[in-house]
Amino acid sequence: MRLVFMGTPEFAVASLQALVAAGHRVLGVFTQPDRQAGRGKQLQPSPVKIAALERGLPLYQPERVTQAESVDLLRELKPDGIIVVAYGQILSKEILELPPKGCVNVHASLLPAYRGAAPIHWAIIHGEAVTGVTTMLMDEGLDTGDVLLQRELRISPQVTMGEIHDALANMGAELLLQTLQDWEMGQVRPLPQKGVSCYAPRLQRQDEQLDWAKSALMIHNRIRGLNPWPGAYTRFRDETVKVWRSQLVSREEAAEHPEQMKPGEIIGFHETGVLVNTGNGSLCLLEVQPTGKRRMSARDFLLGRHGKPGEVFEGWKDHV
Q: What φ, ψ does residue 29 adopt, rounded to 5°?
């Protein structure tokens, strides 16, 4: 098929690569303009831009794809369909109606669950046991279009956002190729979304802060749901500390500690890390990262600062 591809982050790269490898003619790749990133605030190309340039594909980076110049360009390209994977811009009705095959989106959830910008993060933060990918025929709503195909993926209790991200990116690429094949042969029929919908908004800074008054399970899910980006954080003394890995402890171990302990209070050293009291149960911190430092074991962090049981990791309620 003659296709235009629209995508920006690493998640979209696998789908672009799959289209090229399968022999589809990619007429053009649309991605977000280069943005400032890092401490030096240098302009950085998107992962999709890098992938497109490596393959010699025509590249376009409009500030707004709905501008008249971009719409005219899309008309000139005359694609059979437009593929959208985490592009980061809303398409107008004019663009949606332009290609005869329509606009197909690859979304990293089992729609209608987790519509929005951060479906993988929120699925893990909320402790979901299953997620997946959906291909849908786009409409003017936010991830509300008719479903074409879906595929499930189980989420194990220790898996991180990064691991699920990579698995879903590859799964989404495979599902996209299957969708296009079935679509061309008339073997797939768009169906309205069914089930309970929920929203996965773009992450804010406050979403990264740990609230030690929450349960150990909820804190653990937030830590792994924000690993490797943007990372959950807490404070120890006057220092901001990212928390990258944690481990739930048994009920027997959690029951050994007195109820009068504060949320965030350090209980002591566990055989694998540092044991911390929460609003419900205890959590073992495994890997942390002080600001400006490398990642290290939570045990080494605490020993290096002569930390003692009874000291408290501060959560968001301590700073609002």
A: -120, 125
Closest alpha carbon to 220 in 308, 289, 280, 301: 280
**CA max distance for the chain:** 71
Q: Are 153 and 170 in contact (CB under 8 A)?
A: no
User: What residue spans define the domains of the chain?
Assistant: 2-184, 205-318
Give tens-digit pLDDT for 86-102.
Answer: 999 999 999 999 999 99
- Segment 275-312, tens digit of pLDDT: 999 999 999 999 999 999 999 999 999 999 999 999 99
The reply to whether the predicted model has a pTM over 0.85 is yes
Q: Are 104 and 188 in contact (CB under 8 A)?
A: no
pLDDT the model gives residue 271:
84
Query: Of 246, 4, 33, whose CA–CA distance to 105 is shortest?
Result: 4
- The residue ranking higher by pLDDT, 109 or 238, is 109
> Cα 85 to chain center, whole Å?
13
- The token pair at 301 is 């962090």
What integer best gives the mean pLDDT of the chain?
A: 94
Distance CA 89, CA 134 (A): 19
Q: From the options 3.40.50.1820, 3.40.50.170, 3.30.230.10, 3.40.225.10, give the CATH code of 2-184.
A: 3.40.50.170
E strand or H helix that includes residue 49? helix 47-54
Structure tokens at 32: 């977000």
Contact 203, 116 (CB under 8 A): no
| Contact criterion met (CB below 8 Å) for 84 and 6 | yes
Q: Which residue has the tokens 């729609």?
A: 111
Mean pLDDT of 218-233: 98
pLDDT the model gives residue 55: 97
Task: Tell the burial category of 77 from Cβ atoms under 10 Å away from its Cβ (0-12, 13-18, 19+).
Answer: middle
295 contacts 289 by C-beta, under 8 angstroms? yes
Mean predicted confidence (pLDDT) in 131-152: 97
Q: Which two tokens mark 283?
A: 């959590």
Tell the CATH topology of 205-318.
Methionyl-tRNA Fmet Formyltransferase; Chain A, domain 2 (3.10.25)
